[in-house]
Amino acid sequence: MAQNITIIQQIGLSVLAAASVAWVVGLVRIMRRERADRAAWHSTRPLRAVGRQSGPPAREAVALTEAEQDAFAGLMRQLDPRSS
Length: 84
Description:
- Keywords: Membrane, Transmembrane, Transmembrane helix.
- This protein has a domain at 1-46.
- The longest helix has 37 residues, at 7-43.
- It is elongated and about 100 Å long.
- By secondary structure, the chain is mainly alpha-helical.
- The chain is built from two helices and no strands.
- The model has no long low-confidence stretch (mean pLDDT 83).
């Protein structure tokens, strides 16, 4: 190294260089691991195994009592803007 740099400055520069190299190596390892994890995740997506729906959903029917039918009809009258 240069003659006009003190030993403390030389040590500081060496520590800074070593820390920079360690940071770059760690960053590269993390990026590679993330890329591998992402590739593994894309290859084993659970949604690809689910089949597509082949038609409309089945109709559901619920038997209502007379009181429930009256209450539903009243609710529909309240919500219908044309009935006002």
